[in-house]
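Let us practice reading a record.
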Amino acid sequence: MEQQESMYSCAVPVATIWTSPESVRELDEAGVANPLSMNRWIAAMTLEERFELCKEKRVQSQLIYGEPVLVESIQNGWASIIAVWQRTKKDDRGYPGWVPLAQLKELQPLNDSEGVVRVGVPKCQLWHLDRTPAQLVVPYNTILPMIKKEENWIIVATPDGDHLIRQQDVCVASSVHHFKKCSLSLAAERAMEFLDLPYFWGGMSSYGYDCSGLTYNMFKACGQFISRDASDQATEGEGIPMDDPNVWKRGDLLFFADEQSGNVDHVGFYYGEGQMIHATSTKKGAVELCVLSETSYAKRLCAVRRYSEEAGIL
């Protein structure tokens, strides 16, 4: 094992954070490759095989293109990493796990950045500097350093070198910490853009979210960073009375507990009028809008939390 601590970034559109290198099944080959095909990997799995990623505790979370990680050690082509943008009680530094080294690239100093861009469309094409399309489509919320603006384009620094991105597909800020903060109701509204997106355990990308991945990313799209997991999210923000839905507001987070253990195991957005939008692993296995009282979740409601517009920083 090679011991080291250095910063890398995700070099594929989506990199799954595995519990251990041994967690990967034969059918997961497409999910650990570079180049990566998330669509091919998801299509190769049945719904039950996707859920086994959870039941068998194989997957922890995911990274998206350009996301920085701390690499602690390298062993047989795998990197033990900390996802520093994903807050968790598991490790004060960020979310821990294992990622194929082939899906990471060591970060290089960047002296000429003029800020950062964040992708605001479900999937975003990157382009070569000659304005021909690159074989690279990145997911929602991808954040990349901005080199300069050029007509309707922005030159961005990526793990694969400088590329172009359309200005209409991104928002711009001076740093990761300074994206415009939007209202919490907009976080729930943005989740509507992903209706019917397949549920994916550990999912943190617009190829498939899990329940807390959806809430985390819709808040991120509104300029706010909250904890990665539902159990951590349930301890943050302001508590709202559970027994009075009349005081709930669109954008509040609804939390649900396992009936046996009492542990928080699910989260969704309150959408108003008694409705919830969430990424569910039951029945449909997708992002859905539902009437809360008509679901099996209603009797498991254990907390309602409201985040301020200063929910958190990295």
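A brief commentary: The chain has a mean pLDDT of 94.
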